[in-house]
């Protein structure tokens, strides 16, 4: 589990996060949502340790992330996997080499051990046998799966995903969501996903954190979204009249069945 306590972040006079206290649970996809400028990316970077807070705490289980020594922080980061918005694959490396890269950086595994782990991770994302291909030789959805395989190669305890469905068609987005959700549940990972995709919110949102103007505006799960009386949540999720009508029809149907 990861939790924040009165988290604040300012850049000069720009007060981006304003006392955010929340929790991200193990074994569940935890989604951060909100309008552009709400503070989602800054929160994600604070959770990873790329930014230091102006005030407040970030705890990994019971460990204060920003009180650690450099070596202790390095040990925590070895337990972190990251799926980047643009995949961040190295074009000059094969798929297998891309996945192996974190092991080359952080482990003393033998070449045989690394190749075995690469194969395991490719099997995990249903991409067996493409080790020698290059990123340019596979589709966008396949590149995203390679990115997930690389993020999983060090068997992370914590997984961060920045807009994992960016640039993908709806069907592929659903498959990526299901894959991330399955890996999270199966490996009891604390997964934090920064997303604009409302299909993800309603599909895998086991814990949803909504930010507005740098503050925690709402927190709950996908089953609570439809019936929540939070105006901030409804204005964000059901921004269009069409979606509002769908919500109203769903509520009427549910109440009629009860």
TrEMBL record:
State if Transport is listed as a keyword.
yes
Q: Where are the transmembrane segments?
A: none
Q: Which SMART domains match?
A: AAA
Q: Which UniProt keywords apply?
A: ATP-binding, Nucleotide-binding, Transport
**SUPFAM superfamilies cross-referenced by the UniProt entry:** P-loop containing nucleoside triphosphate hydrolases (SSF52540)
Question: Which domain of life does the UniProt lineage start with?
Answer: Bacteria
Under the heading InterPro entries, the entry gives: AAA+_ATPase, ABC_transporter-like_ATP-bd, ABC_transporter-like_CS, P-loop_NTPase
Claim: Isomerase is one of the keywords in the record = no
Give any GO molecular function from the UniProt entry. ATP binding
Question: According to its UniProt record, what is one Pfam family this protein matches?
Answer: ABC_tran
Task: Tell me where in this chain the ABC transporter domain is found.
Answer: 2-238
UniProt-recorded name of the protein = Phospholipid/cholesterol/gamma-HCH transport system ATP-binding protein
Query: Lineage of the native species?
Result: Bacteria, Pseudomonadati, Bacteroidota, Saprospiria, Saprospirales
